[in-house]
């Protein structure tokens, strides 16, 4: 079973994900330039097939798909299949509503056809050698399966942030190992599936939240989540065992980890050439607004909305049903917002966005 059921639906993710769009944006020019190098269409080719994986409710995915299609249209009039994939539990109704607002297509170029696919990006999604362009943004950091190992003294498979210490919060290198292995294995499966699906010369842009030598995207967000849960444990509102069992099922990779399968596994090394590999400290809209206004309450509100959009489904699924009925979820996010407003320095957030552009050989 996938480790997440997806984002908070009903338009909530769309309304609280400017940060993810900002993190993807810097890498789109790589793909736009690479599209000029796609092999010329074969005699029998009737379309360009583009797949985005982890599209969620679609606002950001449609924006990036429009950019990809516009780049294709500079070179060719062939019809385009715009395919959007996510986990079967995703809010696909919202995705289709976003694709056709007011009955007009949101993908504005002519001769573009849309379809959605339910399935994990760590497995096969389309028939062999049918894709020309594949993209994924802010998605493949979620584990395929929740690792069976416990991490009793933190909520994330990562060393806790030294800038936000708390007594009892700790992770040992030995505890981290199974998570690192699972993240590596997931990525090997992701690349193997795309190697089968892409045509020779096809392009794969992989972007995801990650870490560099200075910061991790997981810090700040998981520190405040951990602090709020521990506050509830200390106030006897949550059992200690809940904190010990709870894990936010994401892994924040370095660029080295993103490239490792291609560099280490002979079948993948012969399937892909790495054209670009980089990390950036992406602009974060709620931080920029805070820098302008100094309004810490507004910052805490936007930060909480951003965090809630991708953590609430996981948190709600892990909480005992009777506590969910008592609106504990709302209370936890209220606590998070309060902690953020009171301690902006402790929960500083940096979006380290990592990416690779690959060509299928
Ligand atoms: C943070 S959202 C990103 C949405 C959009 N790509 C963006 O950049 O704003 C992550 C999405 O990835 C999806 N996801 C997580 N694991 C996945 C998997 N194994 N296969 C496909 N989608 C997955 C989630 O359901 C969620 O909709």
UniProtKB/TrEMBL annotation:
Alphabetized Pfam families for the sequence: Methyltransf_7 (PF03492)
Domain of life: Bacteria
Keywords: Magnesium, Metal-binding, Methyltransferase, Transferase
InterPro entries: MeTrfase_7, MeTrfase_capping, SAM-dependent_MTases_sf
SUPFAM superfamilies: S-adenosyl-L-methionine-dependent methyltransferases
UniProt-recorded Gene Ontology molecular function terms: metal ion binding; methyltransferase activity
GO annotation (BP), single: methylation
Alphabetized PANTHER family for the sequence: S-ADENOSYL-L-METHIONINE:CARBOXYL METHYLTRANSFERASE FAMILY PROTEIN (PTHR31009)
Protein name as it appears in the record: SAM dependent carboxyl methyltransferase
């Amino acid at each position: 079973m996938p480790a997440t059921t997806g984002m908070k639906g009903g338009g909530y993710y769309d309304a609280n994900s400017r940060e993810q769009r900002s993190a993807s944006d810097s890498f789109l020019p790589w793909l736009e330039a690479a599209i000029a190098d796609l092999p010329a269409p074969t005699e029998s080719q009737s379309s360009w097939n583009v797949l985005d994986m982890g599209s969620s409710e679609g606002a950001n995915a449609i924006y990036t798909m429009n950019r990809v299609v516009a780049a294709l249209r500079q070179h060719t009039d062939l019809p385009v299949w715009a395919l959007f994939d996510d986990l079967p539990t995703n809010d696909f109704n919202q995705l289709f509503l976003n694709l056709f607002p007011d009955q007009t297509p949101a993908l504005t170029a002519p001769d573009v056809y849309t379809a959605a696919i339910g399935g994990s990006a760590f497995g096969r999604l389309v028939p062999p050698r049918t894709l020309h362009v594949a993209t994924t943004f802010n998605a493949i950091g979620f584990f395929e399966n929740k690792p069976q190992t416990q991490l009793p003294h933190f909520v994330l498979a990562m060393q806790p942030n030294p800038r936000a210490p708390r007594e009892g919060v700790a992770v040992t290198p030995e505890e981290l190992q199974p998570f690192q292995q699972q993240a590596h294995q997931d990525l090997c499966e992701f690349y193997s599936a795309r190697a089968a699906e892409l045509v020779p010369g096809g392009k794969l842009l992989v972007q995801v939240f990650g870490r560099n030598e200075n910061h991790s995207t997981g810090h700040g967000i998981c520190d405040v989540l951990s602090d709020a849960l521990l506050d509830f444990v200390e106030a006897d509102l949550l059992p200690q065992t809940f904190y010990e069992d709870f894990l936010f099922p994401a892994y924040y990779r370095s660029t080295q980890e993103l490239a490792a399968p291609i560099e280490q596994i002979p079948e993948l090394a012969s399937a892909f050439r790495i054209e670009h590999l980089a990390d950036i400290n992406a602009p974060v809209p709620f931080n920029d607004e805070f820098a302008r206004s100094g309004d810490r309450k507004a910052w805490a509100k936007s930060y909480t909305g951003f965090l809630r959009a991708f953590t609430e489904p996981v948190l709600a699924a892990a909480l005992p049903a009777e506590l969910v009925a008592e609106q504990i979820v709302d209370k936890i996010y209220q606590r998070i917002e309060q902690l953020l407003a009171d301690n902006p320095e402790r929960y500083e957030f940096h979006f380290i966005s990592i990416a690779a552009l690959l060509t299928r050989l």
